[in-house]
Amino acid sequence: MYNKKPKIIFNISRFFQEEIGVGLSKINSLYNFLREFKKYFKFYENKILFYIPKYTGFKWEEDEINVWIFCGYRPSISFPLLLNWYNGDKEFALFILIHELTHRNLYFLLPIIKKRIDTLELEAIINLVTIQVAKKVFDKRTVVRLKKLAYFNGEYKYVWKRVEELEKCWNLEKKPLRAYIKKNKNIRIVK
């Protein structure tokens, strides 16, 4: 079920750098980061691309995913997959990439999932998957550090509080997201 994995292609757009208002001043640093990050990702790629569908219960639908790395003050997003370089913090960039790839794994199912799960609850579940995959890649201390960084100054406080609640009662090794949705057909949590 989880054999097919998308090819991850990393890119930089000089045009995008200019459009977000950062300009080209850091472009050489960004290219250096890209070169190092590609090697870093390659080391963990198979684990990440295996565990995301294992924990969601859904296979990859895409054959390739383009990841556009940028430096700036905007957050990373999954469509198109724009990954902030986070001032060269490879571990945090990889943590956020896991999160955005989890969104991509679920993207084609979102219309179905959103009928059953509130957007904030879905974000908490995606963060739960992110944490579980990160535990396969990083040591415990690093996961705690990355999780704290992902609070983004408290903007996602509710979501991370919900992740902590889910961690206590939900073992993704035994019951992936697909099973959770199937069991809770009428679930609709609105805050």
Structure explained in plain terms:
The structure is a single chain. The protein is mainly alpha-helical and 191 residues long. It is built from 8 helices and 3 strands; from the N terminus they run βααββαααααα. It has helices at 14-19, 27-56, 90-106, 110-116, 119-137, 140-149, 157-169, 177-183; strands at 7-12, 64-70, 81-84. A 3-stranded parallel β-sheet has the order 1-2-3. Helix 3 (90-106) packs across helix 5 and helix 5 (119-137) crosses helix 7 (157-169). The protein starts with 6 loop residues before the first strand and ends in an 8-residue tail after the last helix.
Key structural traits:
191 residues; mainly alpha; 3-stranded parallel β-sheet; 8 helices; 57% helix; 9% strand
Shape, principal axes of CA atoms: globular
The Cα radius of gyration reads: 17 Å
Report the sheet with the most strands, covering strand number, pairing sense and barrel closure: 3 strands, parallel
| Secondary-structure element order, N to C | EHHEEHHHHHH
Structural class: mainly alpha
Mean pLDDT: 87
Count of folded domains: 1
Short description:
This protein has helices at 14-19, 27-56, 90-106, 110-116, 119-137, 140-149, 157-169, 177-183; strands at residues 7-12, 64-70, 81-84. The protein is mainly alpha-helical and 191 residues long.
What's the structural blueprint in terms of helices and strands?
Elements: E1 7-12, H1 14-19, H2 27-56, E2 64-70, E3 81-84, H3 90-106, H4 110-116, H5 119-137, H6 140-149, H7 157-169, H8 177-183
